[in-house]
Every structure is written in C-alpha cells, then in structure tokens.
Amino acid sequence: MQDSVMKAWWDSSHMAGANAPYVEELYEAYLEDPQSVEEAWRQVFDSLPKVEGTQLEDNHTTIRDQFRKLASLGPVARMSSAPATSTGGSDEKQVKVLQLINAYRFRGHQHANLDPLGLWKQDRVRDLELSHHSLSESDFDTVFNVGSYAVGQETMSLGDLFKSLNRTYCGSIGAEYMHITDTEQKRWIQHQFESVQAKPEISKDEKRQILKGLIAADGMEKYLNSKFPGAKRFSLEGGDSLIPMLKGLISEAGTTGTKEVVVGMAHRGRLNVLVNVLGKNPSVLFDEFSGKHDESLGAGDVKYHAGFSSDFATPGGNVHLALAFNPSHLEIVNPVVMGSVRARMERRKNDPNAVLPITIHGDSAIAGQGVVQETFNMSQTRGFAVGGTVRIVINNQVGFTTSKTEDTRSTQYCTDIAKMVQAPIFHVNSDDPEAVLFVTKLALAYRNKFKRDVVIDLVCYRRHGHNESDEPNATQPLMYQKIKKHPVPRQIYADQLTAEGSIEEREIERLTDEYRAALDHGACVVEEWRPMTEHSVDWSPYLGHDWDVDYDSAISVEKLKELGEKITTYPDDFKLHSRVNKLYQDRKAMVAGDKNLDWGMAENLAYAAIVDAGNAIRLTGQDSGRGTFFHRHAVLHNQTDGACLIPLQHLHDKQGKIDIYDSVLSEEAVMAFEYGYATAEPGCLTIWEAQFGDFANGAQVVFDQFLSSGEAKWGRLCGLTVLLPHGYEGQGPEHSSARLERFLQLCADHNWQVCIPSTPAQVFNMLRRQVLRPMRKPLIVMSPKSLLRHPLATSTLDELAEGVYHNVIGEIDELNPDNVKRVVMCSGKVYYDLLEQRRKNEQTDVAIIRFEQLYPFPQEECAQIVANYGHVKDWVWCQEEPQNQGAWYNSQHHFWQAIPDGAHLRYAGREAAASPAVGYVSVHNQQQKALVEDALTIK
C-alpha cells in the first residue's frame, strides 16, 4: 500500500524528469532567502530529511544529488531508494548512470542516424557524452543498477549499457516522447523501445513482404518513367518505404479489429499508393496518362488529386480503404479525413478502433500550413475526436526548391508542431525498412491504446525535382549529386537480405520480373485487393434526382404542437437563466397558439421534426448551442450546477440522433471536418454555422476546392448546410456581409443552393427540405440577425405545416396589380425595410417581390408571379450590399430573364465600395434610408 501511494505521488510530482534543474534552482534560491520562493515550495524544502550531524544549508551538494537521483531513478528504484546519506564515489556514479539513461531518452534522437543521404549536420549533444556525466570508458566494466531501463535485467556494465542506449536511441530511429506529461504513456513507449533495443526480431516472411513492397514502389515509378517520360507524377522515389509501411499498417490494423481506413495525402507518391496499396487497376492509370477519359464523369481532375476505394484482405478480415480526393491545397484534406472518420466511427457504435485515419504529409507542408495546427487542436475535443490519427510525414528534406531549414521552419524538426498535443514522434531512416515497419506497428499500438495522435517522420529524399520536369540541381546541387550516387531502397534492402541469407538473388529477380509483367498486363498488382463489400453506407437513394423531385413534406399542426411541447419541457429543478426562461415561456405560448412563432422556435421545431422522423442532425459552430445572437438556446445550462440539457435529444426512444457542439475557434478546419462528415453520412442534416457570415472567409479554400466543385471534379455528393449570418445593421465592415457575391460567383452546373429565407416558416421548411428531398447538394444560407426578433418576421403554425419552401414570394399586401407602376425585387432583410416604408408612405403603385433562393434561380415560380405585372416597364433590383457586391452583378442575367419583354431594370442600393460596409452607424442609416427611398420613389 505504501509503495502504491509513493508511486502515485511521484507520478504527479513536480520533481520528476526534466524539472530537476528547475527544482535545483528553486532550492538554491531557498537557501539564500526562504521567502524568495512560493509558500508551497518552502513547505517542500522545509520538510526535506535532515542529514544527521550537519546543518541542511551546509550540505547543498548532497541535497542536490538527492534530487538528481530521485529525478533519474526508475519507478521501481525510486520507491525502494532512501535519500542518499553518503557522497561516496560509487553512489555518485550510480546517479550519473541513471542521468545518462534519462539523457538518451530525452535527446538520443538528436544523434540518431536518420538521414539516408548523410547530409544532416547534427549539433553536438553534450548530454549524450560520458564525460558530461563524470563517466568514462574506464568505468565500462563497472556494473550499475539500470533503474527502469527496460532491458529485462536490473544491472548492466556501463560498457554494455552505453552500447545498448546507442542501439536503442541513436540507430535508425529517433524517438521523441519525453515531452508527454502522462507517465503511463511514456513508460509504455520506453518499454516498447528498450525491451527490443528498437530492433525486434522479424520473420523471413515479413522481410519478404517488405522487399515485395519496395520492388513494387520502385517498379511502378520506373515503369511510368519509361512509358511516360517527363510527365508529372510526383514520384515516390526515395521514399519507397511508404508502400510496405502502409500495407503493414493496414494489415496490422485489420488484426486489431479495424474495419475501415481513411487516408488523406497530397501529391507525393499518390499514384504509387493508388496502384500498390489500394489496388487501382494500372491500365486505368495508364489511360489517364494517355489523356483518355470518360466524358460522363464531369469536369474531372488531375490524376494525382484522385481518390479511390477498395477492400483489403488482412489476417483479421477485410478492411475497407478510402483514399480521400483532395486539391493542391496540401494539408486541407486532413480535417476532411477526420470528419469522414467521425461519421464512419459513429455508424460503428463509436468504436474508435473500428475506423483508422491515416494522414500523409510533406515536411514543408506540415510545418508551414496553419490548418495542421487547427486539426491537431481538434484531435481531443468532444465534437471532433476520432480516437487518434496515425500521421506520416514523407520528409524528403526539400519543399519545392527550398531546402534550408531556416527558410522552411523555426524549429529543429518539421514535426515539432505535433508537440502541441503531446503526440509521440518517431523519426525513422527510410532506407531501413525494418525500422520503418517497427515504428509503424508501434504507432498503431499507441494510437489504439491511448486514442491519441502519433507521428512518424519518414526521413527520405526526393530523387527528382518537385515534379519530373523540374531540374533540382539548379537549386540543390550538393543534395542531388549525393542522390545521383545513392542506391535505391529496393537495392539496399535486397543486398542486405542476400548478405544475411534471408533470400536468394534469383528470387529477387523473379519477384521483380513478376511485378513488371503484371504492369504490362494492366491488372491489379495488390494481392490483398478485394471487391468492395465492407463500405457501411448506401448512396444509391440520392442518385439521379433533380431539384423538382417529389418528396413527402407534410406535417400536421397537431404534430408541431406535440413536438413544441416536448422541446420546451425541462425538469422542475433545472434552473434557467432569467432571459432564457422568458424565451422558453414565450415558446410555450407559441406552441399554444397564443403568439406567432419567431425564428428560434421555428428552427428548433424543424430540428425536432427531423429527428422525430428518424433522421440525424449534427450542428457545429463557435456559438451554436446558444446561438451567436442569443436566439437558438437548443442547449440549456442549469444556473445551479452548470449541467447541460438538450431537449431535442429527449423526444422519444426511436428518434434520430442530434449532436450540437460549440466548436473550436476555427473556420477552415471545422468546416472541412463537417464537409468530410457530410460526404460520409448522407442521412444526416450536417450544419456548419459561422459566428458572423464573413468569418467564412477563413474557410474559403473549403468552399472553393471542395463544396462548390467536389461533385463536378470527383463525383462526390455532399449535403452540407452552411449558415452564414448576413445583414446590414450598422455593425461595421466585418459584421455585415457574408459575401453573398462570392457564393453566387461559384454557382454553376447546379452545384449547390444559395438561399436567403426571410420568415420562420421558410427556415423551418428549408431545413426539412434539405433532409427530406432525396438528393444531396450543399445549401448556402444567408441567415438573419435582426430578423431573429423583427416584429414582422413571424409565422403561424399553419404556415409551418404547409411543408413547402417558397423559392420566391410575391406581393403580400392587397395591391391591385393594374395600379402597379414599379416592381421592386429584393432578397433578405431589406425586404422589411421596403415593406415598412411603403406602408408608411401608403403607396399602392409599387409591388415587392422577394427571392428566397437565388440559385438555382426559380425561373418557373418567378414567371407565375411576374405574369401579374406584364404591363410594368419599371423594374428595380434593390439590395443592401454595395453595387459590386451582393447579387446584382452575379444574378443580373437571371433578373433580366425574369422581367417582361421591353421592361427596364435598374439598380437601387449602395454605390460600389472596397469595404463591405461603413463603420459609422449614422452613415449606415443615411445610406439605408437613401436606398429604400430610391427603390420606392417613382419620378
């Protein structure tokens, strides 16, 4: 019992590990002036054991050695060791030996043999030298206790220990893990490394599989080079170990229960992975190089952006593989992969071991791209965790033409960014494929055990330029002189195996010839490839539909009241904030029919109706539970104990799942995550909400490269809904515009919907339509701010029950069409400004049409309304945004088509401007008044 208490104390102690120097400094300060250190530390130092017969202050060296010994001893030795009472030479050297072991654990990676080219100039690390610890070769025959050094014996001679430490920590693997604060994780990694001295026994069959992988990697590149010389392929040559590495990782994952693997990677080595890991038919790839394509597949993309899916046979059963499609924005695919994995994992009962994410990075990209940090930061959060990711860096030591470390990053290693989440990092020399396989298995075991990210830094080189048409000698002459003379990994490993008698040269020749013949034949070259049966979602119900497809959207007022009562009910002892309580009392009145529904109630009712029907909802954003504008309150907070309640989760036992998360403060990574989630889960209403609409700027790459064009380029369907608060209320440039013009500019090929709902009933039916209609297209919503509480922006239960989203809404006042001389067309909040001013003016000669969907443009619905005004020649488009923004320029051609022949169309709104809005409320009000008057005044 005493030992376990002491162990627990030490595990949490500030005196452990790397903090020993800090403790020593504090103690020196304490000796000089006890009041100079914090009270907590004074108590620690006051309680130190007294050395018999002396004053504590007179034996500073002795006490410091006690701290050193405690800081360096392993857990067993620590718990059995009493504080040193002697300063004899043997005791001092024992402490130094334990410090030496600790130094190798901390810094051995800095002397590891990691660079296949031998170009790295490593700084001298004095901590790894015997002399630094007052030891020398004359002590080699002396036997010391090795503490927690996990070699299976308690004592070793210093000579044997020194050799063992160098084999373990300074060979082909450099392990960085001592930055991890969790003691269990550190000890687990120590045991894995030290028990086999980082070089476990490997069977002949495993060696043969490694060699076959290297033969395939090398053979594929040489074949492409001979058939298509000079064509861009972003060769893997130099990083060939990636192929046996991935195959070994997937095979090992299958034995531990993994059912799906999702891979994200950029260009380097992608074609090799497609053919030699996922089993893409080489003849299909060769056709792509030859320029052949199926015109029915849409716009298409370059071959090194393409994704692929297949099944892969492992000893534990078939595993489904998915290589994610991704564009040239190197690291943006990482959060997309995470989102896809999260959806798959939830389908498999939230078992993180069932789905494995693998991301493959470039060395310059992982250090240089900010989305990497964002994705790491999400890795352990409640709404975005995926049970850890195996992250592999193809570290070819050069980014495009930049190879100097001081130009590519500010840290020693490109992988240092991973330390922000205390991920272990295993650097490995790619020319030692057995070491690569060892760290691969270790990484997977760590991920599965601790459910955290782990990084493998595959240190290699790039045999050609950034692409095969580049000339790398122009910018890296010394590196490429070395590369030219350096044997390929296949040759190095083949020579090693023949030298040790593991395989004969004629067998190597046979394997090489067989692979070449398979490529010539054009058939799949992956023995483990299997036809797809393990994929867990069916997209067929969503294929082949157009916008006007029929779907059942009917819902009764009685059902709405029933749902309304459930989502406004909470336990009696659940104390709400006074403002939230008032809001919920109002909602109860809305359910009873005593008040019209506001936006927040209609939106929550939409969610209730969706999950009531068995569909799922996932809503994320920086303030999504409450709502940025204090309107949603789907997540309630008990003012007594801080407990949370989501009434939408408690409708009935058979309802669909609903998750609402306040996300990390990110746009790019979070929205990319939600895109990935939506592409893997068609049955879920997946929503990302920006805090303010213009915050979406931070995720522009996701809109441009994925959401707007993913279907055209890759055939990837996605039903992601994006809520972007938009509206001019005088809040300044950055809180007004969601940049509607940018989304309209991207509209083509019916790629997505752009909607601007203006009533609670409209948002209710728009959200339900997105789920119920059997097609999956992204939905971009310019959602309101001031309309959330606008007295005119209300709806009745009957209007919700209608079940129809109106893409265009005609005149609502009782105007005689024959008396109308002008028709004003508009969208969004400005409609209410126009309506109120027209009523104030008591005008009957101006009709107002509002467009609730700008794309796809509702031509037929619009024509039915416009038919009432065939005689009107004066047509106006009115918008709040400046003329060069908003809908005017990008939708004007639709407006011209909509108005009667011979009619004239003009613009009413703010003048063109560089800024989205002015920063002064007074100026805003003047502009708003002027544009409304301009739209309504007939001269």
TrEMBL record:
Q: Which organism is it from?
A: Alteromonas aquimaris
Q: Please list which residues make up the signal peptide.
A: none
Say if the entry is tagged with keyword Membrane: no
**Its domain of life?**
Bacteria
Give the record's keywords alphabetically. Answer: Oxidoreductase, Thiamine pyrophosphate
Q: Which cofactor does it need?
A: thiamine diphosphate
GO molecular function list? oxoglutarate dehydrogenase (succinyl-transferring) activity
- Supply the enzyme class, top level: oxidoreductase
Q: Could you tell me which residue ranges the Transketolase-like pyrimidine-binding domain spans?
A: 597-790
The record's SMART domains line, in alphabetical order, gives: Transket_pyr
Q: Function, please?
A: E1 component of the 2-oxoglutarate dehydrogenase (OGDH) complex which catalyzes the decarboxylation of 2-oxoglutarate, the first step in the conversion of 2-oxoglutarate to succinyl-CoA and CO(2).
Q: What is this protein called?
A: oxoglutarate dehydrogenase (succinyl-transferring)
Q: Which EC number(s) does UniProt give?
A: 1.2.4.2
Instruction: State the similarity comment.
Output: Belongs to the alpha-ketoglutarate dehydrogenase family.
